Amino acid sequence: MHQLEGVLLAALAAVFYNAGAVPQAAEVRKEPVELSLRPSLLVRLAKRPGWLLATALVTAGWPLNALALALAPLSVVQPVLALGLLVLLWAGHRRLGEAVGVSEVLAVLGLVVGVALLAASSPGEEPRFVHYAPFELSVGIGTLALLTVLPLLVRRPATALAPFAAGAGFALSAITTKLMSDRLAAGALLAGGVYALATGVASLLATLAEMSAFQERPASRVCPTVFATQAAVPVVFGVTVLHERSAAQGPGVAVLVAGLAILVCAVVTLARLPTLAAVVDATSGACKEPSTPSRESAVASSASVAGEPS
């Protein structure tokens, strides 16, 4: 029962994340592209009431996500956040009159089936507090942290790496949120606080990378990478590092692999659909991608399932 409650809370968190992500993307396109991958970009955005309101809405989903991770495995909860794409699809259909065709229906069915298979492949309720292997945990977190900061280290033309960095950063924040939830549930307040701080840092870096990517690159290139990465990486991390499904064998592993493959395909398909791009275009007045980067980015951008606080 706890796992089902976790899934429902994660789905609710996804609604908050996506409801605030569209106005976030609209505000960032008003800033000069020269600020891409610079902390000053977030400083300037923090002075925009619209961006702050949207960010507050996104952040409101994080406590729900954290509670979901306290009730269910990371490899089940995180993929559920991809269901937030349905919010954008619904908005495109209801508010803008966008047609929902065969591609949209198949992608939605694939999304639901993929999430259901991942949940079904879970071996059952996990312990309230798990002792993770320190070496494996350090290597996994360190690798994701390096991928998150890589664009800042490389600089130009690092915006090509920004979508990968954003996805890695949001995946990392999901993992540290899971670790925080486990520690707090076990009464380890200091360790829980450290992971909470790590979650905030990872989320800020991921947000900077995502906002920078939206400034200079079209949604068809940015969103599939961010969405698929933050949905798939926590599943792999949960299985290989946190050993959440160590009891799953044979058919359980096959179901897990099938569910993950279907989920990633569905997420990439949904992220590329014109219906989702139309939501952002109508909200922000975005036009087509310019031939060269200029004063204010006018690339079409879509929202991330972020799955994480921004």
From TrEMBL:
Q: Keyword Transmembrane helix on this protein?
A: yes
Q: Could you tell me the keywords of this UniProt record?
A: Membrane, Transmembrane, Transmembrane helix
Q: InterPro entries under this entry?
A: EmrE-like
Q: Where is the composition biased (Low complexity)?
A: 297-310
SUPFAM superfamilies, alphabetically? Answer: Multidrug resistance efflux transporter EmrE
Instruction: Give the stretches traversing the membrane.
Output: 76-93, 99-120, 132-154, 160-177, 184-205, 225-242, 254-273
Which residues does the annotated region (Disordered) include? 288-310
PANTHER family (alphabetical): CONSERVED INTEGRAL MEMBRANE ALANINE VALINE AND LEUCINE RICH PROTEIN-RELATED (PTHR40761:SF1)
What is this protein identified as? Answer: Magnesium transporter NIPA
Origin organism is Thermoleophilum album
